[in-house]
Description:
This protein has about 110 residues and is α+β, with helices and mostly antiparallel strands. It contains 2 helices and 5 strands, in the order H-H-E-E-E-E-E. About 15% of the residues lie in helices and about 25% in strands.
Amino acid sequence: MATLPIIKWKTFIATPVERVFRTLTTAEGWDGWFTRGTTLDARPGGQLRLRWNDAERERHRATVWGPVHLDNGGVVVAVEPDQRFSFEGRRPIIPRPSTSASRGVGAGPS
């Protein structure tokens, strides 16, 4: 079996880093913008379970990935308050996600 490469993605969000961190480290935060029914224990070794309950009925954008009830997730790897939240995925849909909230310099891309 081939080894998948690590995917790193950066984006700039015009909001306080504390708000971004809260969004990424709570189930309510994930459900507010991306998932429906996520559970999360945001400690190293904790479980992140991304769920898209009733995605098709709600016409959620996740339906492009597959069936009505999608379920994915992984293990929390690192947590540094308002700096970094990383997790490693279990399935090919999310090979090795890692998300960081960090204080950057500058306004970001235009």
